[in-house]
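C-alpha cells as discussed.
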C-alpha cells in the first residue's frame, strides 16, 4: 500500500523521545528471532524461556512475500467494502457492506486518532485510563473502522495465516496439543487516523481461580502486513503477565502520564509475527505516524481454561463452554489447515491433535466458505 504521509498538526517532543527510547529498549530485550523448533516439533527452550520471562516474543520472517501480497489483496477488498459510515448497510459503491448481514459484532468504529474504550465501561471496563487523542487533519471522516472481528470469514488469506503450521506448533508448544481457539480480528491503523487502544489486560474470568498462573488466559498472535513501530504498534509492560492484581490507573497516576515508563513497543518488519500474553498490560497509541499498521490477529487458549467454563466475552456470556462448543469452534483450525494446503501444497501441514484423535476431517471449497458466516458467535472468550 502507498504509505502516504500526512501533515501533523502538532509536535509532542516528549512522546517522540519516549518512542525513540522504547525502540532502543525493544531491540535490547532479547526476545526476538526466527521460529526454532526442537526434534519433537516444539519451540526451543530458549524461546519459551524468553516468552515466559517477557510476556511477548517477536518471530521474525514468518510470513513470506507471496503470502503478504495475498493479505494485502484481501485488505484492499475489505477496505473497498466497508460501510460508508457507522450503521450503514452499504459501501461506497452501493453494494451490501462488509458484515452488514452478520449477527455477530464485526465492525468497530472510532473517531480519528481517538480512544473509544479508555475510561469507559466498554469491554467490561478493563481500559481504566484514556489515551491521548491528538488533533487530526482537516477533512477527515467523523468515524473510521479500526477493528474487524470474525475476520476469517472476510479474508481467505487471513484464514491461511491462521493455518500456518509453525504458528500452530507455537500454539501447541505454549498451550498444549489440545489448544483451543479464542477469537480472530484485523486491526487497521491508518496514518493520521488510526485509533489507540488504552492500556489494559485481557481476560475477565479466572482471576480468583486457585490454579491461576501466568498462562491462564492464553495469548494473541499478531502477524504484521507492513510491520509496526513504536508510533503505530502495540506496547507491552514486560513481566506483567505474571501479576494477578494490577492497578493500571494507579500506574498512570504515578508516572504522571499515559506513557508508562516500563512499557516496550513490539517492533516488527513486514512478515514478522508477534505473540503477546493476554494477561500482560498492553496498549497502543493513536497512529500519528505516516505508516499503516495492519495486523492479522488471532488467539489461542489452553483447553482447561475454557472447558466447562462460563464465558466472559463480548456476545456469548453466560454460555458454558462444553466439549461440543469447543469442538465446533475448533473447526476453524481444520478449515484453515485445508485452505492453506491448497495455497501452499509443498508445505508440510500441521496436524491438530484433537482432530487426529477424533478422526474428524475437513475440506475447503466455495461451499465451505459460506459456512463461516457468523462463526465468531462461538468465540471462546474468558
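Sequence:
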Amino acid at each position: 500500500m502507498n504509505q502516504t504521509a500526512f501533515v501533523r498538526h502538532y509536535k509532542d517532543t516528549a512522546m517522540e523521545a519516549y518512542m525513540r527510547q522504547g525502540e532502543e529498549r525493544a531491540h535490547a530485550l532479547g526476545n526476538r528471532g526466527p521460529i526454532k523448533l526442537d526434534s519433537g516439533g516444539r519451540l526451543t527452550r530458549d524461546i519459551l524461556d524468553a516468552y515466559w520471562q517477557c510476556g511477548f516474543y517477536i518471530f521474525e520472517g514468518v510470513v513470506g512475500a507471496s503470502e503478504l501480497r495475498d493479505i494485502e489483496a484481501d485488505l484492499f477488498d475489505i477496505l473497498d467494502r466497508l460501510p460508508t459510515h457507522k450503521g450503514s448497510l452499504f459501501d461506497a459503491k452501493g453494494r451490501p457492506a462488509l458484515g452488514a448481514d452478520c449477527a455477530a459484532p464485526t465492525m468497530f468504529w472510532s473517531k480519528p486518532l481517538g480512544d473509544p474504550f479508555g475510561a469507559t465501561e466498554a469491554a467490561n471496563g478493563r481500559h481504566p485510563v484514556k489515551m491521548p487523542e491528538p488533533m487530526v487533519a482537516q477533512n477527515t471522516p467523523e468515524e473510521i473502522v479500526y477493528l474487524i472481528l470474525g475476520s476469517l470469514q472476510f479474508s481467505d488469506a487471513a484464514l491461511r495465516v491462521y493455518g500456518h503450521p509453525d504458528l500452530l506448533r507455537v500454539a501447541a508448544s505454549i498451550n498444549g496439543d489440545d489448544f483451543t481457539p479464542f477469537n480472530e480480528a484485523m486491526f487497521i491503523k491508518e496514518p493520521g487516523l488510526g485509533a489507540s487502544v488504552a492500556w489494559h489486560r485481557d481476560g475477565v474470568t479466572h482471576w480468583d481461580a486457585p490454579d491461576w498462573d501466568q498462562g491462564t488466559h492464553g495469548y494473541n498472535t499478531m502477524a504484521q502486513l507492513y510491520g509496526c513501530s513504536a508510533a503505530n504498534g502495540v506496547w507491552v509492560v514486560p513481566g506483567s503477565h505474571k501479576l494477578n492484581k494490577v492497578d493500571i490507573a494507579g500506574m498512570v497516576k504515578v508516572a504522571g502520564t499515559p506513557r508508562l515508563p516500563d512499557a516496550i513497543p513490539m517492533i516488527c518488519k513486514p512478515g514478522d509475527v508477534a505473540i503477546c500474553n493476554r494477561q500482560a498490560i498492553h496498549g497502543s497509541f493513536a497512529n500519528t505516524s505516516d505508516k499503516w499498521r495492519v495486523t492479522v490477529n488471532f488467539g489461542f487458549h489452553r483447553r482447561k481454561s475454557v472447558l466447562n467454563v462460563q464465558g466472559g466475552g463480548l456476545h456469548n456470556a453466560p454460555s458454558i463452554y462444553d466439549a461440543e462448543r469447543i469442538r465446533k469452534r475448533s473447526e476453524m483450525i481444520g478449515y484453515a489447515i485445508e485452505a492453506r494446503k491448497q495455497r501452499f501444497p509443498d508445505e508440510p501441514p500441521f496436524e491438530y491433535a484433537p482432530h487426529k484423535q477424533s478422526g474428524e476431517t475437513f475440506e475447503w471449497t466455495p461451499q465451505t466458505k459460506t459456512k463461516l458466516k457468523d462463526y465468531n458467535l462461538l468465540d471462546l472468550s474468558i
